[in-house]
Each structure stands twice: as C-alpha cells, then as structure tokens.
Amino acid sequence: MSRHLAELTDEIVHCRACPRLVAWREHVAVEKRAAFRDEVYWGRPVPGFGDPAAPIVVLGLAPAAHGANRTGRMFTGDRSGDWLFRAMYRAGLANQPESVSASDGLTLREAWVTATVKCAPPDNKPLPDERDACARFLRRELSLLAEARVVVCLGAFGYDAACRHFAVRPKPRFGHGAEVELAGGPTLLCSFHPSQQNTFTGRLTEQMLDDVFARAVALAGSSG
C-alpha cells in the first residue's frame, strides 16, 4: 500500500467524528451476535482495501454491524460479502471466492473495495450529516486511487455518493447495469447491492452481478 493510502487508513481507523456511529459500532462490538460471542470485534471504522493501482473501485454503503464491524475488513464476514467476492473471483479480481476474516489470505488484483461511510450505522442507514462527515475520507481515497477507470456503485447510496464526488449534474437515474461516462474521469457502473433483501428475493442474481463485473473489467481494460 502506498504511504498516502496507509496514512489515510490510519486516520479512518482512529476517527470518532460521529457520536451516534461511535456509540453504535462499540455497542455492537460488546453485545455481539450469539454466533460470534467468542470473537473479538473490530468495532472501529473500516478502511478500504485492495490494489492501490486498481483500475476498478467497488463502492458500497457502509460496514455491516456483524460483518466488517466484526472482522475489520470491508464486506468480510457477511452474506453480502459472500456474493461480492464470489463474483470478483469469477471475474479474476480476487484470488479466492470467499472473505471470512482479515487474515484469510484474500488479495485483490486490479480492484479496490471501499464504502461511502466507514462506520456501521444503526439499521444500516447513515444520517445525512454522517454521510457528509465521511465524504472527506472518500474524497481523499478516490483521489489517491489515481488509476481508477471504473467505479462499481453497489446500490443507490453508493451511486449518489459517487455522483456527489464527481459533481454529476443532472444525475442520471440509478438502475442495475446503468453506466455514466464522466469526461476526464472514471465510468460509474451501477449494480443492485448484494444485500439479502436483493439476493433472497431474486432482485439480484449471481449472473446479474457477474455481468456487472465482466463489464467493469472490459471498461477498465483489465486483463482480469
């Protein structure tokens, strides 16, 4: 990881800017879920991770309370991550199809995974002021990922954040597979979020997610 990304990671991990999020993430880390009662939860903001020279950036909403907030790595240890990393593995962007802990050996190739808000929010719904407070981290993160040619926006929340960051006006409507080409910037590529609400109902299928990542690889000119 580059020195500047490492410095940003350190700043993110030690952030306590949003009292409601700090209280919630730490409460969850103490109360825990029964299935994980013997584990030590991360309970802090979760930084992005992956290939610093990535042409593909995957942008989600926020860490899951018992997923990344437990494991300390984005999209790790929950069912959304199961879907995401299986798709990235099939696309040649990950060395293994699962992400269960921060020490499981997962590495990403030509991809970086992050979220709009770095702390797990109650009900998975950050407040506007929390989103805005975290925007400074996303702004620096995207500026340091200088090789990014595609931003895969998982869900409308991530898409809205990307549009705010890149000053997209008027903002095209979000939809699975929608693309927004930016002059002098990356292409925004939309996908339904791999949340259980979408995957359990069939709104998002594995083929649909595979198609998005195949398109991302093609747009990025990646050899994945």
What can you see in these coordinates?
The protein is an alpha/beta fold. The longest helix has 17 residues, at 128-144. Strands 1-3-2-4-6-5 form a 6-stranded mixed beta sheet. The mean pLDDT is 96. Helix 1 (3-13) packs antiparallel against helix 5 (128-144) and helix 4 crosses helix 8 (206-220). It has one domain: 3-Layer(aba) Sandwich (Uracil-DNA Glycosylase, subunit E). 39% of the residues lie in helices and 11% in strands. It has 8 helices and 6 strands, in the order H-H-E-E-H-H-E-H-E-H-E-E-H-H. It is globular. The relative contact order is 0.16.
Task: Write a brief caption for the model.
This protein is α/β, with parallel strands linked by helices. Helix content is 39%, strand content 11%. It has helices at 3-13, 19-31, 68-71, 79-90, 128-144, 155-165, 196-199, 206-220, and strands at residues 49-50, 56-60, 111-115, 150-154, 179-180, 187-191.
Secondary-structure topology with pairs:
Elements: H1 3-13, H2 19-31, E1 49-50, E2 56-60, H3 68-71, H4 79-90, E3 111-115, H5 128-144, E4 150-154, H6 155-165, E5 179-180, E6 187-191, H7 196-199, H8 206-220
Parallel strand pairs: 2-3, 2-4, 4-6
Antiparallel strand pairs: 1-3, 5-6
Helix pairs in contact: 1-5, 4-8
